[in-house]
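Friendly challenge for the regulars: who can give me the structure tokens for this chain first? No prize, just bragging rights.
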Amino acid sequence: MKQQKQLYLTCYKMEIAMSVEAWYFLYGTTCGACNLFYFFSLLSRMATEDTPCIKRGMEYTVHPGQADGSMLSLAKEWNIGRKAVCRLLEDFGERGLIRVVSNPVTSIIDMVCVKSWMKDGRVIENPTNIPTVKAYEGVRIYLFNGQRLELLRKSSAVRKKQPKNQSEKESNLTGLSDTTEPTEQSISEDKEQVAATESPMETSDDPPTPNNDGSTAQSENRPPTMPGERTLFDGTTFYT
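First reply, four minutes later:
Bragging rights claimed.
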């Protein structure tokens, strides 16, 4: 079967309800092709209004919600044998997706899983619909005309990507670590300066050093003072 890339319907929008088992079956394969493509092929054949047909000189009508699907035409379209077509339609019928009604001319397929469709801005209920699941059970899908089939076949497992905020946080943390080091260094320098000002012995002039005879020698920076010597505020020296 030549797998189609897009789904072409005779209406704008279609609502389908099915069981979980049927949904899993559609993701299986038959003769090397996905069952979902066979099912979409039947949906594209479904009529949304009364369609008169002629085959072998006999007239018949395909009603809304039905698809004209003879075994020969389906086998030719799907490129598989007629027995494989018959077996596949039986599998669809057992899972509540379709119902096959044969007549002397062809096989009419009721798309019983289709609940409704939208055409010309109106929602039309499918007269051949047979509810197999409740409103809160099963699987419900909405198909649109011309929808790409790759979007329906994507796996639900999505690779977890690293959020952008995390990389930004890491860069911010790196910037903070770089700025904390000079801050600590400046704090330590300030502490050394404060300690230097608090200890005047380290910043004052050289202290007096003792002589060999035990007396104290005055520093060179400080002039010697005599006993009883005093200096007035104007610089005058006098002795007492």
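The radius of gyration is 48 Å. The CA atoms of residues 183 and 210 lie 45 Å apart. Your move, everyone else.
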